[in-house]
Amino acid sequence: MARVNTADERRFDTPKGSRRPRFRRGERDKDRFGRFTEWVARAMGTPGFLLGLSVFAISWMAWNTFAPEHLRFDSIAIGFTALTLVLSLQASYAAPLILLAQNRQDDRDRVQIEQDRQRAERNLADTEYLAREVVALRLAVKDLASKDFIRSELRAVLEELDRKDEEDAANAAPRG
C-alpha cells in the first residue's frame, strides 16, 4: 500500500498524523476587520471624503431636480426621501465602524500606558539604586584620607627624617 505524503506530514513542527489549519481564521479575520474599520475611520475624516460626499449629494439633488421627469428617481416634492435614506444608511454603518476603530485605538493606548508604567517603575528602581550607590560612595570617600591630610603626614615624616639625619650627623661629628 502506497503511503501518501500530506503537507502536515512533511512539516517538522507538527506531530505526525495531526491536522493543523493553515491559519487561524478567527484571529486573522478579526484583525483584518479591525484594520478595515480603522481605514474607514481615517477615510471618513479626510477632506476628500467630505468633498466626494458633498458632490454625490449635490449631483443627486441636481439630477432629481433638473433631469427629465421620466429619468428622476427621487422626488424633490417629498424632500429627496431616497437620498435621506442613503445618507442615513451610510451614517448608520459609519458610526459603529468609527467606534470599533476607536476601541482598537483605546486598546493600543492601554497597552502603551501599561508599557510606560512598567518603564517608569524600572526607571524609578534604577534611580533609587543609583541614589543608594551614590550615598555609599560618599560614605566611602568620607573615610578616605584627604589630599591635605596626606600632605601633612608626608611633611611630618620628612621632618622626622630630617631630624634623625641631623641627630646622626651630630652624633657622628664628636668622635672624630
Description:
The structure is a single chain. This protein has about 180 residues and is mainly α. The protein has one domain (about 25-165). About 75% of the residues lie in helices and about 0% in strands. The chain contains five helices and no strands. The mean pLDDT is about 85.
Q: What is the helix content?
A: over 70%
In terms of DSSP E residues, the strand content is under 5%
Number of domains: 1
Average pLDDT over all residues:
85
Q: Give the terminus-to-terminus CA distance.
A: 125 Å
Computed over alpha carbons, the radius of gyration is 44 Å
Structural class: mainly alpha
Largest sheet: none
Shape type: rod-shaped
- E-strand count: 0
Number of helical runs? 5
Give, in order, the helices and strands: HHHHH
Low-confidence stretches: none
Coiled coil: 103-167
Keywords: Coiled coil, Membrane, Transmembrane, Transmembrane helix
Biased composition (Basic and acidic residues): 1-16
Transmembrane segments: 39-63, 75-100
